[in-house]
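Field reference: sequence -> structure
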Amino acid sequence: MKKLFLSLSLLFFAVQGFSQLFKTVKIDTLVSVSLPATYQEKDTLNRKVFSGKGAFGYMMVIRIANAGNNAALKKEKDLKKVFQDYMNDVQQQSGASGQIINMGDTTVGTLKAKVFTLQTNDDQSSNLQLIKFIYIYTRDATYSFEYFYKDATAFLIKDELKTFTSSIKLSPDLQRDDQYTFMGKSGMSPILLYSLIGGGVVLVIIIIVVIVRSRKRRNR
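Structure field:
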């Protein structure tokens, strides 16, 4: 797992002032999100970092490109392992004081995503520092949407956090098979499977009706 930018959380506590205005920012051709208008962007090899200071929290989006020959995962359990490995990496980098809480699953567009919060202790005070994560994996890249705040301001962040997280938009080109390809026991998508089952039921009914009518005609 590539190194994360958890150390950048220090920026949240060091940057002075804030921006209450948001603007839509394209992370790449497939993903966009709303960030403070005065956001910063850093682009290094295979990695892009977007960050900005809000009124009550600090927002960061990290896009890491996967290898060009990276294949889509086979099954949903493989995706769950990627999520777990990512959380383990975050936990490890946060040190002994780090604790992952409020883990859950969600969907963004058609993709599955992992949500969780990293809680750490501030060595210089009794305040807790928290980072809310939304993590998305695709065959071509991974996306981490992070919101940094202090426990003391938790009651103030609701609207700003919602503005940030609910603004994540994905292109229709991103579909579930960009994450994993095996959708069920049939190896096909549920929609196609249900369509085939429905068509089969209709066909059976038609055959039964034809047989019954044929027998009635012979019995006349």
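Note: Residues 184-220 form one domain.
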